[in-house]
Structure formats: structure tokens, C-alpha cells
Amino acid sequence: MKKQYRINYILSLILVFGIGTMLPTLIGSSMVSEQHSAKSEVPYCVTPPTVPEKVSFDGETIDLRRYDRRERMDREMMSFTYMHSTTMLLVKRANRYFPIIEPLLKENGIPDDFKYLMVIESNLNNIARSPVGAAGLWQFMPATAREFGLEVNDNVDERYHIEKATVAACKYFKQAYAKYGDWMAVSASYNAGQGRISSQLEQQLANHAMDLWLVEETSRYMFRLLAIKEVLSNPQRYGFLLKKEHLYPPIPYKEIEVTTQIDNLDDYAKQQGITYAQLRDANPWLREHSLKNKSGKKYVLKIPTQEGMNYDPKKTEAYNKNWVID
User: Fold this and answer.
1) Quick check: 228 pLDDT over 50?
2) Which one of 69, 189, 205, 270 has the fewest beta carbons within 10 angstroms of its own beta carbon?
3) Confidence (pTM)
4) Which CATH number applies to 54-245?
């Protein structure tokens, strides 16, 4: 019996291996040639997304027919289309963060499209920190964050506070728009700085920021903004097929106002029925194991509920119906 079992086992392995070896050839030569009238040495085909003739940003129509604009847009659309895991995560995370961000943009008179600027700044990772020290969803540098009203020190760093950082970003956008009167120039200045964009518009005698010759990072920045709007507006068109349960839902919290010092946040978290790690995840602006608060400032701590920490993916709702398939 054991001998026969070994023989059957070996035959099964040979069969599986044989099918696995032949499958790419079958798919590559038969299916690809039938569907695409082309032969491929790999078991899949890659095709570039179509670059639209025009796109809009805050209602402004941007013509992409000129060769340089078209090719720059093409590069960024291909990047987001084939940066599979990253773009998939963006769709998942957008379901959590866009419901928070959109009302704040509207309340502060900022175009809704600026939520996509936040996407390309941080990949919707609220604990992101760049090598040069920019931090949070909006990737504020420390000095700029303080200029627009955020507290930044070793104990508290409000660049990681979603709502406060978004309001600070809105203040920046308003200030820049008062200077340029053009939202695309505002977005370019967020990357390069207002001084650089102003000087280059003047020196190059350009009427639009997208026509400037800039360092590659800023030059790509504006087209990355337009490209991620295209992809996130309709992920299915670019091959991202998600169900509702794949998305990340907003986490429900209870809020506790604090006006005193908390000597030990580890103990405080335990008293709230959560861990210190969960407290930090809900309040990443806390930077140490204590909240010093010598001035008696009012802080609001988010405490995740048990329902929030153990959510049922099948009950997740899609904030944007275009993000999911039935």
C-alpha cells in the first residue's frame, strides 16, 4: 500500500508540474494570439492606458493634445496603472480618508480635486515621513507647518493630525491662490515653493505652470496629480477590480477632551481598554509615552471602539461606487 501510495504521489507531482509548465505556453501562444493577434513569450499582455485629449482640474480644462503634455501624462498614467500594489492600496485607503478630507476642503473653500494632491504627497499613509523631514498626509515640513498653525515638537506633532493638518493645508492653498489666481500653479508651488514658481513664471515668460521648465520632480508632480485623479475616479478602467469588502472603512472612535498632562500614556491606554500601540495608531500626533501639556491646551484623543477595531469587512460600504465591482 505504501509503495502504491508513493507511485500515485509521484505521478500526481509529474502531472501538476507538467500542467504548470505547459500553461504559460498555452496561454501565451493560443489565447494571446487569438485575442490580440500577437505572440507573446509571457502568459500575459501589457497595454498602455489611453491618454485623454483633455482633463479637468477644479473645472479648468487642460488640453493634453500637445506632444509634451501628452507624453508627460502618459508616463504618470502608466506608472499608476502598473504600480499595482501601491495603487490598489490607494483605492482601499481613499475609502477611509476621503470622507474625512472632502468636507474640510469644502468648508474652507478649496477645490475638491486637492484631495488628490494629498494622495500623491503621502500615498495616503498618515505616518509617512520623507528623508528630508516632511511628515503626515500632507507632508508638511516643520517650519511650514508652524507657519500655518500646527504644533510641532518632540512631544506633539500635529502634522500627523488628519483634521488639523488638512485645515493648515487649506490655509496654504488660499494664500497661494491669492498670489497666482490659478489652482494648478498652487499645486506646483506646494511641491517647489511659491518663490520658485513665481520666479520661473516671470523668467520664462510663461502663462501656465504646466508650461514651465522645472526640475523633474516638480514637472512630474502636476501630471501625477492629474493622472491619479483619472485612475482613482474609475479604477476599473485601469484594471483594478475591488469588492466592497476589500476597502478600508472609516474607524469609529469615541473622543475624549484632555486639558491636563498625562504622565504615562501606556497606563492611560490600558485604562481605556486599548493598547498603547492602538492609542498611537488613532492619534499619531502623539510622539512620546507622555503628553506634557504644561500650558493646559485642549487636545482631543480618539479612542477606537471595539466595533471599530474588529470591523466586519463584508459590512464595509464603498464611499465611491466607482471603486468597486458588484
Assistant:
1) yes
2) 205
3) 0.85
4) 1.10.530.10
